[in-house]
Amino acid sequence: MVKLNDDYQTAATDFRQAGIAVPQFDQAQMATATAEKPVWLHFGGGNLFRCFHALIAQQLLNAGELKSGIVVVETYDQEVVDRLYRPYHNRFLTVELGTSGILTKQVVASVAKSIYAGAANLPGYRELERIFAKPSLQLVTLSITEKGYAIKNLDGKLSTAAAEEIADGPANPQTNMGMLASLLWVRYQANQAPLALVSTDNFSKNGQRLQEAVMTIAEGWEKNGFVNHDFIDYLSDPHRISFPWTMIDRITPNPSATIAQELTASGFEDTALVRTTKHTKMAPFSNTEESHYLVIEDSFPNGRPALEKAGVIMTDRQTVNAADQMKVTACLNPLHTALAIFGCLLGFQSIAAAATDDDLLRLIKNLGYGEDLPVVDNPGIIDPKEFIDTLVTKRLPNKNIPDTPQRIVTDTSQKVGVRYGVTLQHYVDDPDLNPANLEFIPLVIAGWCRYLLAVDDRGAAFTPSPDPLYEQLHAALSGIALGRNADVHSSLQPILRNQSIFGNDLYELGLGEKIEGDFKRLISGPGAVRATIQAINQEYGKY
């Protein structure tokens, strides 16, 4: 049996016998180089980072294109660092799950250091201050999910934490955005060195959202006298501080017990699944799919690693935005979310199983090809139709990907505006299109509202996935029960008119009443969810 803490250089033969590739560099030497001249720091040490960013760095380190590794920072869950990084010398195993069932495994050692820097962890924050003061630092990447950027409440006002950190100044950051702004203030005071802050989270115009959040905090500090206007100019100058836009795509489910068993059988020891007290699900290994894309706006004022040599597509902002809109708002995420919502309601525990259900497959095809594809701007670097073809025929039905509807539906209130709101806006803006003619997007939104009841299609209660707005939205639907007449309009109107969720008042688009009608059908009794999907597929479907 081999394990992560084995010397992968002297035990390379043992790892090969277990079917595991090992790094082609000395991790200790890399860590020393990183401490002296850090180049890359990453916020968010979860499974996506392990299966994408860390692999990019490993590929460059193996090729001699990079001498310094990644410093990974966790701000949400200290157990991720304490239980999953430090005990294993910051190493982990990645497992790529092929459609043929073949597992491609490698030990990843590209992380030089792991730091917990939650709001109350001063030592971790002090380490970050030292790193940000180093002029060698070229890029700071983030994969912290949509809610990690939040500094405002649903009503558009600053959250309590953001308001307090603006009032208290850079010395006491409480949010992720406040921490970044504070660290940039440290860098400005030290040397005003350039830096790229690169959001790689899965939503449109992610760089813009990151920039707006950081600037909101910084401008609040200027107003309160904590920083000078020259600092604001520093942050506003893309030749000094840039916020590149990106598109990222790699399905990375939680570590699977089935994969753990296969790894043990093949001779790998570190397979214990971990669920932290904050409900983070990880393991000493991470599993992911074969397909992956990362497109980045090439705006790095302090230079950058040769990311293109590890398969990253470096391009301009317009192309990134087109690729991102294609994927996030049309050709992948809306279909994934629809599959997850209805998969939960229909009792599926596997995305692959849901994707091979005839009714759900027809639904997502009509959603993707019929309603999303007509408003997609072809980015040129990826063909949108071929992207959907691959998604529905290979990626989503891949039974070797242990993904679940329950994982995908997490935080849907934070995603639904991007997943569907952008396409709705295209239908508003195009004089030749009418959003009121849509059928499948309204059905999905009605399905999400039906999901908020936390009762499946059989009439059985289920535990909904975490969502910061769930309790509030669930309470708004408290007068509705399966199979009973109810004032649907009064319950749904506050949700469907909420522009913070959808980006538009859905009644003004001519969709509110249609969604209410679909919702009434979905709650008419046990079996109504599947019956409604079948009926709308039959009446309006072309695929």
Helix and strand topology:
Layout: H1 12-17, E1 20-21, H2 27-36, E2 40-43, H3 47-51, H4 53-62, E3 70-74, H5 78-84, E4 92-97, E5 103-108, E6 111-116, H6 122-132, E7 139-142, H7 160-168, H8 176-190, E8 195-199, H9 206-223, H10 229-236, E9 241-242, E10 246-249, H11 257-266, E11 274-275, E12 281-282, E13 285-289, E14 293-297, E15 313-315, H12 317-331, H13 333-345, H14 351-355, H15 358-372, H16 384-395, H17 405-408, H18 412-429, H19 440-451, H20 470-476, H21 488-496, H22 499-502, H23 512-522, H24 528-540
Parallel strand pairs: 1-5, 2-3, 2-7, 3-6, 4-13, 7-8, 8-9, 14-15
Antiparallel strand pairs: 4-5, 10-14, 11-12
Approximate helicity band: 40-55%
Helix count from the secondary structure assignment = 24
Query: What topology, given as strand order, has the largest sheet?
Result: 6-3-2-7-8-9
The counted number of beta strands is 15
Mean pLDDT: 95
**How large a portion of the residues is in β-strands, by DSSP E?**
5-15%
Rg calculated over all Cα atoms: 24 Å
Quaternary state, please?
A: single chain
Apparent shape: globular
> Which consecutive residue ranges, at least 5 long each, have pLDDT under 50?
none
The description of the largest β-sheet is: 6 strands, parallel
- What class, by secondary structure content? alpha/beta
Span between N and C termini? 50 Å
